[in-house]
């Protein structure tokens, strides 16, 4: 491993940055997978065991103590869910070409369903607000799909778009002319 520069107090941040020419894409993928897996583990655990724990006795047994402050609890739930679903998206994106990709997808889907079940179990009776949690969980996936669609649309040069439109119009016009000519000859 290379020795860090002597004066690290000023450039330590730059020293530890990803450098495209030096590091391999595989190394970068491995680091991202580790980070995403850590985020997924921490957020999953925080959802299953919410901060402050759950009531042990009484009418609210098994429900999150933190849920007494509804606004703060839902900020926690939404932020935690966003972090979990984003890390799951990163894991799926980085492992999509792996040999066991189907098993990874099943495991990720199962983890998200388990997380949702746990959240539902510890949240006191307001299931109507779960639509916000579901929207949050699907948010990173929807945004990624929209970005991909936009990039696909954007990479198609305007000339190609125009050429396709003109080509379709020409085919349509040719068919109309042939139809008109065949009627007039009869």
Automatic annotation (TrEMBL):
Membrane protein topology class: Multi-pass membrane protein
Keywords linked to the UniProt accession: ANK repeat, Membrane, Repeat, Transmembrane, Transmembrane helix
GO CC annotation: plasma membrane
Domain PGG: 27-118
Cell location: Membrane
Pfam family, one: PGG
Transmembrane intervals: 31-52, 72-92, 104-123, 129-147
Superkingdom of origin: Eukaryota
Predominant location category: membrane
InterPro entries: PGG_dom
Signal peptide from the UniProt entry: none
Name the record gives this protein: PGG domain-containing protein
Organism: Rhododendron griersonianum
């Amino acid at each position: 491993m290379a020795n860090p520069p002597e004066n690290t107090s000023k450039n330590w941040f730059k020293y530890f940055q990803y450098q495209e020419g030096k590091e391999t894409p595989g190394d970068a993928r491995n680091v991202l997978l580790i980070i995403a897996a850590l985020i997924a583990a921490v957020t999953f655990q925080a959802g299953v065991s919410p901060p402050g724990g759950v009531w042990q006795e009484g009418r609210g047994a098994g429900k999150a103590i933190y849920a007494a402050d509804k606004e703060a609890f839902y900020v926690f739930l939404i932020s935690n869910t966003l972090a979990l679903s984003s890390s799951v998206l990163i894991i799926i994106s980085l492992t999509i070409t792996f040999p066991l990709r189907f098993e990874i997808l099943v495991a990720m889907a199962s983890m998200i369903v388990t997380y949702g079940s746990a959240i539902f179990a510890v949240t006191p009776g307001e299931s109507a607000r779960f639509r916000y949690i579901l929207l949050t969980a699907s948010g990173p996936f929807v945004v990624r799909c929209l970005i991909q669609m936009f990039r696909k649309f954007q990479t198609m040069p305007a000339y190609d778009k125009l050429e396709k439109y003109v080509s379709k119009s020409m085919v349509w016009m040719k068919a109309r002319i042939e139809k008109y000519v065949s009627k007039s000859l009869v």
